[in-house]
Amino acid sequence: MSNTDRRPAARELGGRAETPGRPVLDLLPGKEVLLGESTVVRRLLPTLGRRMVGAWAFVDHYGPDDISTGPGMQVPPHPHTGLQTVSWLLEGQVHHRDSVGSDLHFGPGELALMTAGQGIAHSEQSPAVHPRFLHGAQLWVVLPEADRSVPAAFEHHRTLPGFTSDGLTATVLIGAFAGVTSPGRACTPLVGVDLDLAAGADVEVPLEPDFEHALLTSSGAATVEDAPLTPGAMLYLGTGRRSVRLRAAQASRLLLLGGEPFDERIVMWWNFVGRSGQEIAELAEQWDAESGGGDRFGAVAGWDDVRTPAPPLPPLPLKPRGRVR
Ligand code: MN
Hints:
By secondary structure, the protein is mainly beta. It has one domain: Jelly Rolls (Sandwich), CATH 2.60.120. The chain is 4% helix and 48% strand. Strands 2, 14, 15, 16, 17, 19, 22 and 24 form an 8-stranded antiparallel beta sheet that branches. Strands 3-4-5-12-7-10-13 form a 7-stranded antiparallel beta sheet, with no helix packed on it. Strands 6-11-8-9 form a 4-stranded antiparallel beta sheet, with no helix packed on it. A hairpin with a 4-residue loop joins strand 8 (94-98) and strand 9 (103-106). The structure holds manganese (II) ion.
């Protein structure tokens, strides 16, 4: 999806200054953000308490929303650079089109992974005839210097690897978990896993101790170690954990996100990730100049001239900094 804020704040991210070298349990409340006219999402990253978890830099959880009487998700063409979008549905269908020629529908259990690299444009819509409920997560992964200017690419994985054990069904979206590796392209050491807990589940799941991790619930409620976790918040686990204990009195659905703390300093603004305010300003200018399709972003079929213009740049220079609160 697109960051639809018309006055987006500049986010200065990266660096290890804010990564504790030990396990912690920090409950970080998300904030509700209005997307478009009627869709409210829970933004769990970035928040006041934390800006990145590994290379994960943006986490929106939306729904379940009853869209039976409306058009549902309608996100016209908008650009991205320097990041990957990870689209994960729990209910519903999304029609994805992009400027590298992708045109497909994806649904629950399928991974839509878009590597923006040097630049891409895409649109996301609920199909005209769609399921009643829309529920999912939109996540962004920052690309490291070595990969941030690669040609844009899109991957659709209809099935993902995972396992079921002791009331837990794990599906590996990206990276590796418990010895199971996703086919999705990953450019830094990281992990993203859907954890489906049956009512009464009490499991200890393995973690990579060099990673920092965070958990969120998309439905139900869970107890992580001794901390309660409900939808609308993210629980940051810090580093240095070899495992974490998860309990669920009721059937619950969690997302585990983690990765090696992201060393590089970046600037994130609107839908772009860059390395300087100057670069971001040039990307915004180029997107607006390429109306109708251009060399960096290209055109999305089916939209004619409909596209999302870049918001006005903030007046202050955008400087990359460490991951301070
Ligand atoms: Mn998008």
